[in-house]
Design brief:
Strand order of the largest sheet: 3-4-2-1-14-13
Strand content: 25-35%
CATH architecture: 4-Layer Sandwich
CATH superfamily: Endonuclease/exonuclease/phosphatase
CATH class: Alpha Beta
Number of domains: 1
Number of strands: 14
Length: about 260
């Protein structure tokens, strides 16, 4: 089974790119982030036409997450992260697909640092850590897939010295990511490529993609049950080079 995540950066504006990638790569389960579409504007019919059913949590203009399934029955668990009743941002979705607990997240960016957006990010992470502590102990396989907006280590960013005061690379969020891993999660990509420079995001500016000046911020975390079944994984880097594409590339694992 192939499970993937892709920050599409606008599901309707990038729909031809998304449909092309789905058709070419045929992942079984897909997590999407940054839909930038209200609930009623999600392109369900177009996605179904290429063989996928969808559960989505949209939001006007920003945010939004979805889980797609090709041939497997899905059951929604939750679309809210506990701990803040006032948080209305569409960043979280849990779905059961073929016995696999799939958690799709779009963690807050947090910039500019310091400021209220960074404070919101830290609060969101604290709430998220409580849920990950529960999920890691489940007897069923669990994958947390999505855009974490966290650069875990210096190996995961081009010229790390320039990112020290960026909310994606602040010591607070890097330590939080480490604490989540210490709960028992496996970082799938780093497990498969322990010492390699691998990026999942390249800015649109300054020819970042052409210079390979990227970041690794899209992650796949596996609980111990699923980590034992990890076979392969990778980044569909070439998709970032397509016309009118997202600034992220799809990330995938095979179990």
């Amino acid at each position: 089974m192939k499970i993937a995540t892709y920050n599409v950066n606008g599901v309707n504006g990038r729909l031809p790119v998304l449909l092309r990638w789905l058709t070419e790569e045929q992942p079984d389960i897909v997590c999407l982030q940054e839909l930038k579409a209200p609930q009623e504007k999600f392109p369900e019919d177009a996605i179904r036409a290429v063989g996928y059913e969808a559960i989505w949590h949209g939001q006007k203009s920003w945010n939004g997450v979805a889980v797609l399934s090709k041939g497997y029955t899905m059951h929604e668990v939750s679309r809210t992260l506990a701990g803040n009743l006032d948080d209305i941002q569409s960043r979280y979705l849990e779905v059961i697909v073929e016995g696999i607990h799939v958690c799709c997240i779009y963690l807050p960016n947090g910039n500019p640092y310091p400021g209220p957006k960074f404070d919101y990010k830290l609060n969101w992470i604290d709430r998220f850590k409580k849920r990950t502590a529960e999920l890691v102990e489940q007897s069923d396989p669990v994958v947390i897939f999505g855009d974490f907006n966290i650069i875990p280590t210096e190996l995961d960013v081009y010229k790390p010295e320039k990112w020290v005061h960026d909310a994606l690379f602040r010591v607070e969020v890097r330590e939080a990511y480490t604490e989540i891993l210490q709960q028992g999660w496996t970082d799938a990509l780093r497990t498969l490529f322990p010492n390699e420079k691998i990026y999942t995001f390249w800015d649109y500016f300054r020819n970042a993609y052409g210079r390979d000046a990227g970041l690794r911020i899209d992650h796949a975390l596996l609980n111990p049950v699923l980590a034992k079944k990890l076979i392969a994984g990778g980044i569909d880097r070439h998709v970032r080079g397509w016309e009118k594409t997202s600034d992220h590339a799809p990330v995938w694992i095979q179990i």
